[in-house]
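Sequence in, structure out. Go.
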Amino acid sequence: MGLNDAEVKKQIDHMIAFIDQEANEKVDEINAKADEEFEIEKSRLVQQQRQKIISAYERKEKHLEQQRKVQQSQLVNQARLRILKHREEQIESILTEARNQLTAVSQDTARYQELLLGLITQGLFQLLEDRVIIQCREADKQLVQAVVPEAIARFKDATKRDVEIYISDKRHLDEDSCGGVKMTSQSGNITVENTLNARLAMIGQQMMPEIREVIFGKNMNRKFLD
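Output:
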């Protein structure tokens, strides 16, 4: 026996309800999946941007740290240079004072004449030449002439060699020199600087570590004393 219209309509309504339910469930499933994918993508983008911000901040922080180190190094170097300059000025002041005191040596004629004798004799032993030319201050010429014979005698007695000494009339030491003599071989190839200025410079160079220690104290960073 066939279905009547009411029963057909009921089955059709039941099928429609079933289809609607499945459609709604499918829509809910699609929406849930879309929401999940949205949250995942949103989280990925947020994390990506966060990492970019962190990386940018780290680069900026590293750049600022490098700048700070460079500036600090520059300031340290500038301070070190100022200290070194001040120390050199102090040392130069001491050497200048020593030069001023050396000038007074030539005021004591007897003492200065004996000093000239020693400087000339020493120069002869250093040159070991048959002919020697002496340059001195114009004011010291007579004192040098007075001690030359004794210097020659001492040289000959020690070396058994003769030597001729000429006092230059053309070239003299500068008048601002502290004194002493400059001695050269006749050819001019060999020179001995036995001026008081040269001796002071040599002694000052040799004693520089001691001078620095006396003025500024021991350098704790220095590993070697010689």
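Check: The mean pLDDT is 83. The two ends are 129 Å apart (CA to CA).
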